[in-house]
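step: validate -> pass
step: tokenize input -> pass
step: predict -> running
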Amino acid sequence: MKPKVLGIAASLRNARWGGGNKQLVDSLKSIDNKDELFEFLAVESELHLENFIKAGRRDGKNFDELYKNLKKNTGNKGLSNSETALSAALWETLQAGCEIEHISLSEFFLASGRVQNADVLKKKLMESDGILVSGPVYFGDRSSLLQKMIDFIQGDETLKENLENKVYAGISVGAKRNGGQETSLVYNLYDFVRFGMLGVGNSSDTTSQYGGTCVAGDVGTAYKDHYGIETSMGTGKRLAEVVMYNCSNAVLKTKSNILFLILQDKDNVAQNICNDIVSSFPNEEFKVIVICEKRILPCIACDICPTHIDTDEVYRCIVKNKNDCFDTLHNELFDFDAIIPVVYSPLDRTSIKTGYQTFLERTRYLRRGDYLWSNTVVAPLVIED
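step: predict -> pass
step: emit ->
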């Protein structure tokens, strides 16, 4: 049985609901290549613009009247901007071998505040192996529909327990390139990871790190943002990769090999806590590297990173200085099942030792080489007074 990804459209301007959800999925399954996909997205986006025109846009009707007219449609044609980006991502998950389903949150959370068919929504969430949420930006944050779904999950202990260790990814659509898409995605990642889900961002094909980021300044225009669509497809691809791995029945090693990276400390507080953790789990393998006590020179923002093609064991950063530790540190960073970055943040920062930012900067050549750490579990540990 194939893993299932649930695509969730979190926009009030949705074009698909009811039977239109299945029709969309069937259409995506019939598309053989990217050229066909982009053509499909263009046609459906134009159809949704036509929905708006027929609902009264051409006649200059007030939007509230226009919106009521849109709700009289059957929900079986067109794609909103959020659904356009979501459809592109769902198509990519199909290519990776997942099954897909599409729902619109406006079917469940009504403008009146009433929730309808809550049992249906709960069932769909529980039956999914991964969820992919696409919605508009509202002042750098999420839509109220998505907030209602988050509150819905928060209020159901059974649902929260079911979602734990499943995979989450997000797509955000804004009116301009820097329209708050990434802040919206970060807020969403925070909430879904808080439910115990595994949050993923984009693939290495595009540079939108937290998910898909599309630009659409008007109805039916998201498909024109080819780069944004590519980030959405990358997000679908990344989600599918992790979902497939998560559902593969892979057997864990007898011992997990875990790396603690102490990036900031004072009076050895973080180091002592890490040592206590290590001693509490004698059946696991740990390595603790106290980064904040090492000399790491800053990244000089060179024009190429890494400097050349080679194996991972070869240090490939342009910074080469006898006072810099990275040449020797390099080979200590491989072959771990999980990485735990550790930061102690005291109230009194006098004499604090930190290598946090320089370490992140200088691992750039690792991340941009062959994305060595892409499938490594990362769970930060922050210690505060």
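step: describe -> The radius of gyration is 23 Å.
step: cleanup -> pass
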